[in-house]
Design goal:
elongated; 12 strands; alpha/beta; 336 residues; Rossmann fold; 12 helices; 15% strand
Length: 336
């Protein structure tokens, strides 16, 4: 009996080391994995020429020009939540499924965001720098404000923000939130005060970003938004780097118009060595690691592979980002 031809799945921009989980889950379906970093379009096109599905991390962009070179491509599955690196309209036009994993790393990102908030609430970067310099005084930290006297403003109120709100309230923070896609009664039921964006910017002591990156939210935090913030307030971003105009943030921090910031995501990653933000003292930068624990990493990989398996079996992904694509193709009944 002749052996069936292998089915190719390309893995791009993964940061997991050996693909042991992917191989274990996909090998029974006759899948052969090919791997690359996705940084060069021509090389990626050659690597993926036989691929039915692309599993991609956050770094590689999958735009129309690349899709045009991959006629066998049936689906793109993101190792993660955001899909701003994928041309959704072109994928939909070509009948290509785009799926993500929206329900992992919820606790991890909420915990990381809270850790960044608390780092500035206690001014830990200032305290550690002063002690390193031999200063053993409280004076450089004055004033410190109790969480009970602080307002944490959340821009975006999805799963992660709701978890952060719960955890922050347990420490005494007052929580405000704005999200045009979440009803005010839902915000209130989750323990946050629904407010307008302008009120949140003007009144919050800490502002944490939890919105997706879209054409409407790109540079949501620009010079105008930063000008509304209190000079004693801090900006926290664990969502997408493009939400913040880094030039405007640099100016606001340099001129002391806000007290500080903490960023786990940047517009350009890795952090460029010539970034002006590197000269700012009142800034915490972490390497896009808010999502990470061993548990969340393995969960992400298993759930992404589950979407690949659904497509290989002729079904639509469970977490389909572009449902309009169903008008362009026929799928098996039972899209589970």
């Amino acid at each position: 009996m002749a052996k069936s031809s292998p089915r190719f799945v390309a893995v791009l921009g993964a940061r997991f080391g050996a693909l042991n989980i992917e191989k274990k889950l996909l090998a029974p379906l006759g899948v052969r994995l090919v791997e690359g970093d996705g940084s060069n379009e021509e090389e990626t096109a050659v690597l993926c020429r036989e691929a039915e599905i692309i599993l991609c991390g956050g770094a590689p962009e999958i735009r129309a020009a690349l899709m045009h070179k991959l006629p066998r491509l049936r689906a793109i599955v993101r190792y993660g939540i955001g899909v701003d690196t994928i041309d959704l309209s072109e994928a939909t036009r070509r009948g290509i499924f785009v799926a993500n994993v929206p329900d992992y790393c919820i606790e991890e990102v909420a915990t990381h965001a809270l850790a960044l908030v608390l780092s500035w609430a206690r001014k830990l970067p200032v305290a550690t720098k002063k002690t390193e310099d031999g200063d053993w005084e409280v004076a450089p930290l004055v004033p410190l404000q109790s969480p009970r006297d602080s307002i944490l403003g959340l821009i975006g109120f999805g799963r992660i923000a709701q978890t952060l709100a719960r955890n922050a309230r347990a420490l005494g923070f007052q929580v405000w939130a704005v999200d045009p896609y979440v009803e005010r009664k839902t915000v209130a039921a989750k323990g946050a005060k629904p407010v307008a964006l302008t009120q949140l910017l003007r009144g919050s002591d800490f502002i944490s970003l939890h919105a997706p990156l879209t054409s409407k939210t790109h540079h949501l935090i620009d010079a105008k938004a930063l000008a509304l913030m209190k000079p004693t307030s801090y900006l926290i971003n664990t969502s997408r780097g493009g939400l913040v105009d880094e030039g405007a943030l640099f100016a606001a921090l340099k001129q002391g118009r806000i007290a500080g910031a903490a960023l786990d995501v940047l517009e350009d990653e890795p952090w460029p060595l010539d970034s002006p933000l590197r000269s700012i003292e009142h800034l915490i930068v972490t390497p896009h690691c808010a999502w990470y624990t061993e548990r969340s990493k393995d969960e992400l990989r298993r759930k992404a592979c589950a979407e690949v398996i659904r497509v290989l079996r002729g079904k639509a992904p469970k977490n389909l980002v572009n449902p309009e694509v169903l008008k362009h193709r026929i799928v098996a009944k039972g899209n589970g």
